[in-house]
């Protein structure tokens, strides 16, 4: 019996070691932008992986420019029967933040549709300063045709991207798997800071969960109701807007900018819902008396001013959010939730947003 078990173990080990990845010469490359782009708010950018045309729109700070050319929230939809899937990107700006890991900031996150639902498959990222080298994002698939959704780097700029499959395999674009176009402008929360993978920000979780496409303009630390961001939002094709607009600005900025911001966007998009979100509870206030006061003061002010806004303007809504578990263990750095916190956030807004969208015939 021992000899039989030993022989079986040897065969298993040999099979594992024998599963060699194909050589790069055996890979055929396809330009990513020739596949189906999902989650893109501004559809007219010269670089398909930028989220805003920074030549057309002016006023951004240096940091904001880096953010709007990053590919957070964008994904490629395609189908393939390749047993291996590879990526080869050319990077411009790259982010190396300390509160978000490299797989999210500079890597790729793959989902595959199974039984009508999106199931996580794999994620990959090269080492520091080797991000442009080709790498496999999926290995040893079974060779049957699969519908794939590949999320792009959350906080880095792609100048070009190629998707590789084993030569002779099929790779082709599919129809956008999601319906409608819901723009979302927000802070680092919407950007997805502190997620472990690019597919874990709450807007993209909401999209996979509901089938309704959110188009993200999350800009970490820089969602302050600026008029030049409103200029971008005024010129996009959307069915609705969602805003995470009260996490970054001061009370003075909210007081000065909120109503003009609403009026500007409504003038460009009459009759569509503008859904504003309550700011989440940040765990950093738990024992910090200054943070506790400043956070609560801002929340109280926003509650009062949004109570006025929903009465003053048609089609304006204010919904509650939650990204905190009962154990208060969802925070990464006292400000940003981790993956589970963002899952709670997506769940907390789902019924509220779907109910509002149904009023406008968006189902």
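-> sequence recovered:
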């Amino acid at each position: 019996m021992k000899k039989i078990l030993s022989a079986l173990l040897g065969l298993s080990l040999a099979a594992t070691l024998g599963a060699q990845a194909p050589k790069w010469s055996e890979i055929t490359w396809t330009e990513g932008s020739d596949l189906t782009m999902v989650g893109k708010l501004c559809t007219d950018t010269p670089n398909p992986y930028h989220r805003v045309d920074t030549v057309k729109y002016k006023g951004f700070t240096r940091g904001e420019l880096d953010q709007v050319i990053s590919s957070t929230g964008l994904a490629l939809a395609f189908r393939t029967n390749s047993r291996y899937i590879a990526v080869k990107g050319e990077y411009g700006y790259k982010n190396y933040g300390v509160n978000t890991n490299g797989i999210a900031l500079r890597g790729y996150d793959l989902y595959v549709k199974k039984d009508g639902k999106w199931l996580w498959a794999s994620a990959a990222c090269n080492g520091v300063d080797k991000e442009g080298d080709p790498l496999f994002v999926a290995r040893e698939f079974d060779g049957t045709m699969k519908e794939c959704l590949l999320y792009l780097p959350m906080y880095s700029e792609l100048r070009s991207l190629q998707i590789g499959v084993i030569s002779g395999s099929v790779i082709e674009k599919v129809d956008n798997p999601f319906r409608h176009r819901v723009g979302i402008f927000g802070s680092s929360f919407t950007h997805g800071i502190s997620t472990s993978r690019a597919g874990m920000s709450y807007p993209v979780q909401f999209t996979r969960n509901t089938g309704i496409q959110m188009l993200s303009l999350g800009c970490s630390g820089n969602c302050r109701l600026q008029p030049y961001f409103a200029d971008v939002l005024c010129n996009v094709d959307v069915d609705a807007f969602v805003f995470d607009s009260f996490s970054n600005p001061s009370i003075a900025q909210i007081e000065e900018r909120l109503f003009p911001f609403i009026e500007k966007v409504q003038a460009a998009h009459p009759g569509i819902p503008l859904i504003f979100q309550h700011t989440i509870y940040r765990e950093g206030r738990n024992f910090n008396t200054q943070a506790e006061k400043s956070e609560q003061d801002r929340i109280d002010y926003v509650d009062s001013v949004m109570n006025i806004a929903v009465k003053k303007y048609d089609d304006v809504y204010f919904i509650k959010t939650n990204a905190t578990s009962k154990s208060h263990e969802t925070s990464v750095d006292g400000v940003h939730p981790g993956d589970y916190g963002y899952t709670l956030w997506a769940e907390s807004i789902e019924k509220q947003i779907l109910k509002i969208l149904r009023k406008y015939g968006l189902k």
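The chain is about 30% helix and 25% strand.
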